TrEMBL record:
PROSITE patterns: REL_1, REL_2. This is RHD domain-containing protein. InterPro entries: Ig-like_fold, Ig_E-set, IPT_dom, IPT_NFkappaB, NFkB/Dor, p53-like_TF_DNA-bd_sf, RHD_CS, RHD_dimer. Residues 11-189 form the RHD domain. One of its GO terms (cellular component) is cytoplasm. GO terms for molecular function: DNA-binding transcription factor activity; RNA polymerase II transcription regulatory region sequence-specific DNA binding. It comes from Daphnia pulex. It comes from the Eukaryota. One of its GO terms (biological process) is positive regulation of antimicrobial peptide production. Signal peptide: none annotated.
Amino acid sequence: MNTADVGVDAKQKAQVKILEQPASKALRFRYECEGRSAGSLPGANSTTENKTYPTIQVLGYRGKAVVVVSCVTKDFPYKPHPHSLVGKEGCKKGVCTLEINNDNMICTFSNLGVQCVKKKGIEEALKLREEIRVDPFHTGFAHKNQPQSIDLNAVRLCFQVFLEGQKGKFSLALKPVVSEAIYDKKAMCELTICKLSDCTSPVNGGKEIILLCDKVTKDDIQVVFYHEEEGHLIWEGTGEFSASDVHKQVAITFRTPRYRVTDVEEPISVYVQLRRPSDGACSESRRFEYLPMDS
């Protein structure tokens, strides 16, 4: 399809595909007041020898198009995120706008950085996004009055492509696509178990234990117990706790899970580790013992 053929069915035939996802944990979100570059977001497959960057392609269409890239929330429904995209090319008022007009209809974003806002700046940032009418999924901006509902440590990139329609106006909007989640590198610390108040539990579980750790996010952490034999996982359970049981991000009070069987006569050696559900990161494992109920 070329520009001359663009009609009402263009949106059905053309689509946007992400060829290179952004790296999930390679970039630190920068505040504007830090007075330094926000850096360039690399691609998921980027290496020192072969640098890559987020890349999209418009399929089923050849001609002029405009892509608008903005930050949306990590979780569905994808709402406008207050963080801004900054860079040398096409970035203005928190979004990046570039024209695509080449043979393969591929666009690479080699200079995109994420500039973050603090909680007190959320409302103003989203008001600006509302003014420029960048709301890819038409979810509205009511969340600007609920700053606690917005995860400031994670965003997704949303790519909105508009095809050239009548009179040279880019009025034909394709279905927007979103990237994998991008996490603020400074917030995604390595997981470490510093100390356990006890390293044993009866096999029926329910024992209260305090775990000291490096900084964690209270609603994105699990205490996982598991038992392996000859490299095969034969049991896994998670400690029971709520977000309110995470103290100042460095201590977790939890109750041990019930082991897979309770009629044991000897201690069972298992492992315990911290796990972050959002990206699957795990701490180093520590040994833990389940004891017979009558011991």
